[in-house]
């Protein structure tokens, strides 16, 4: 039995088609140069769906020079792999299972496409191994939108829950209950806590990026070279770490092109601890911000905490590393920025109390209550950071745009509009349903009340806004048509912008960029090598003047 079987699923029926074709050529060239044979420790196989209508999909076995390619035709998809449950249900076709149309052009954005490929690799080609790596290359936008594994012919995409179902069949049927050693995403915005939590029971390690991936992808030739150079057995953790290093090394050579990337490896066995810590943080922040819920128990210290925490959250959210048009944050960087804000607050708070002319026993009680609440927030933040440090095996970055990445991102939008448009997809994720309800509650409060100015409307108050938010949160099923606004009723439509669609992309790229990060194209490294934050150093410098 081989040590590793590495399977790459390339969904290239889109604008990535030519880049993936080049990557396949690179793999073939390196495999031939190294003289890889079926008797080697590692098997490397790939599926490729071309963007050309006249070109069928292909399976490639780069560890078998005698038969490196197998052409896939529409006719063959009829003989696709079927699960045990489907075999039992053949009498009632399609009963209980969504089955893709077999008469259309072969699509990579199907659960059965994935299952067929893995079945071909392991059972038909005979590449059973001690460890398996399954890497998906294609478009994605985290759990958002309709871009995950997007296929242009026919136009289709996969949802996260459908993709998860496919992996469950792979683990249960082809791998006979064995977890995928490494689940990789050579695609954008997949190193999210919400995404990793979905697959914690199906894979041991996750390798993905918080930000965008260039069309050229990971560079699989470099990965093969690393495997060939090291003849000793490799554990999944070591391979996951090597994938990160391999990509960073490759990207450093092309940094002069101005592209920024990040990539990280997680231990999915420790992701639940991160999710729990985030939920506890959400609960703590929500409790401190939700003044209307305190009713008659509202204390003077509660108001002070609300005012200071509200400012600190906005400042930390602004300063921290973000992705996906600033709709996601690097979780560790956000927590570190919020800790810095509290560090500043600790040095200034006595001045604040003095200015308020708070003295005597009453003042002492308020101070004690205030410090107790601040300590609870700091503890929750530190717990998140500790959980991330235990979960992330290695995080690397190259380029200015993602230089403050630490491995795990989290959905953290700026506006009520962004939150509610995404809510219908967000609330069906396992993270939100099982363990992240308090974080979701905090998000709703943050974007709808805490960070929003009151409207110029007679009789409007914070209490009224809270009541309306409570009514919205009580909705059992919130979809686009149930929102207080519809797509066509937004302040502007895409075609009504003051610039053409082609111009808008360039405009947003140069003038809509919110972050004022240091612009150094040749910055690169690993997050573990940068433990001290520049914000802390700056604050220490001010204190020592």
What fraction strand?
5-15%
- Helix and strand content put the structural class at alpha/beta
Helical residue percent band:
40-55%
Mean pLDDT: 78
The major pleated sheet works out as: 10 strands, mixed
Low-confidence stretches: 74-82, 90-105, 355-361, 473-514
Task: Give me some keywords for this one.
single chain; 545 residues; alpha/beta; ten-stranded mixed sheet; three-stranded antiparallel sheet; elongated
Overview of the structural elements:
The chain is α/β, with parallel strands linked by helices and 545 residues long. Helices cover 46% and strands 14% of the residues. It has helices spanning 17-34, 74-77, 84-88, 111-124, 160-174, 193-198, 220-229, 236-253, 271-289, 300-319, 331-355, 360-391, 416-426, 430-435, 437-450, 462-473, 501-511, 534-543; strands spanning 2-11, 42-49, 58-61, 69-71, 129-137, 151-152, 155-156, 180-186, 203-208, 261-267, 322-323, 328-330, 392-398, 409-411, 524-526. A 10-stranded mixed beta sheet has the order 4-3-2-1-5-8-9-10-13-15, sandwiched between helices. Strands 11-12-14 form a 3-stranded antiparallel beta sheet. The protein has a two-stranded antiparallel ribbon with strand order 6-7. Strand 11 and strand 12 form a beta hairpin. Helix 9 (271-289) packs antiparallel against helix 12. The longest helix is centred in the last third of the chain and has 32 residues, at 360-391.
């Amino acid at each position: 039995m081989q040590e590793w079987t590495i399977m790459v699923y390339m969904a290239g029926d889109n604008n990535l088609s030519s880049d993936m074709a080049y990557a396949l050529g690179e793999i073939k060239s390196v495999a031939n140069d190294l003289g890889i044979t079926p008797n080697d420790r590692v098997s490397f196989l790939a599926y490729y769906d071309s963007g050309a209508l006249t070109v069928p999909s292909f399976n490639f076995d780069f560890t078998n020079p005698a038969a490196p390619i197998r052409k896939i035709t529409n006719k063959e998809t009829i003989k696709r792999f079927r699960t045990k449950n489907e075999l039992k249900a053949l009498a009632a076709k399609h009963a209980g299972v969504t089955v893709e149309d077999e008469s259309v052009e072969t699509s990579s954005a199907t659960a059965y496409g994935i299952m067929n490929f893995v079945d071909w690799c392991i059972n038909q080609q005979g590449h059973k191994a001690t460890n398996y790596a399954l890497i998906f290359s294609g478009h994605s936008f985290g759990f958002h939108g309709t871009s995950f594994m997007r296929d242009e012919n026919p136009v289709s995409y996969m949802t996260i829950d459908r993709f998860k179902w496919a992996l469950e069949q792979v683990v249960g049927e082809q791998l006979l209950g064995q977890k995928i050693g490494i689940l990789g995403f050579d695609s954008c915005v997949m190193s999210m806590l919400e995404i990793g939590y979905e697959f914690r029971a199906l894979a041991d390690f996750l390798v993905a990026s918080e930000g965008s991936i260039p069309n050229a992808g990971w560079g699989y030739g470099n990965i093969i070279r690393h495997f060939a150079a090291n003849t000793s057995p490799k554990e999944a953790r070591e391979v996951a770490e090597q994938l990160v290093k391999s990509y960073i090394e490759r990207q450093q050579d092309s940094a002069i092109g101005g592209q920024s990337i990040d990539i990280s490896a997680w231990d999915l066995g420790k992701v639940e601890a991160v999710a729990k810590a985030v939920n506890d943080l959400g609960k703590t922040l929500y409790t401190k911000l939700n003044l209307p819920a305190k009713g008659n128990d509202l204390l003077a210290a509660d108001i002070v905490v609300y005012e200071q925490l509200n400012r600190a959250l906005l400042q930390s959210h602004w300063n921290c590393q973000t992705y996906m048009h600033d709709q996601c944050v690097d979780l560790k960087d956000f927590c570190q920025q919020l800790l810095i804000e509290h560090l500043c607050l600790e040095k200034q708070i006595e001045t604040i109390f003095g200015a308020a002319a708070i003295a005597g026993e009453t003042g002492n009680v308020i101070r004690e209550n205030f410090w107790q609440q601040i300590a609870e927030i700091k503890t929750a933040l530190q717990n998140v950071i500790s959980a991330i440090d235990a979960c992330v095996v290695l995080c690397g970055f190259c380029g200015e745009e993602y230089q403050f990445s630490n491995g795990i991102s989290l959905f953290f939008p700026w506006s009520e509009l962004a939150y509610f448009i995404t809510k219908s997809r967000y609330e069906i994720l396992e993270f939100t349903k099982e363990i992240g309800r308090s974080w979701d509650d905090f998000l709703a409060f943050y974007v709808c009340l805490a960070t929003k100015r009151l409207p110029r409307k007679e009789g409007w108050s914070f209490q009224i806004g809270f009541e309306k938010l409570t009514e919205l949160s009580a909705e059992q099923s919130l979809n686009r048509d149930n929102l207080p606004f519809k797509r066509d009723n937004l302040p502007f439509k895409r075609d009504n912008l003051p610039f053409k669609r082609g111009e808008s992309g360039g405009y947003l790229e140069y003038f809509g960029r919110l972050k004022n990060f240091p612009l150094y194209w040749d910055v690169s490294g690993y997050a573990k090598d940068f433990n001290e934050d520049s914000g802390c150093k700056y604050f220490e410098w001010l204190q020592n003047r």
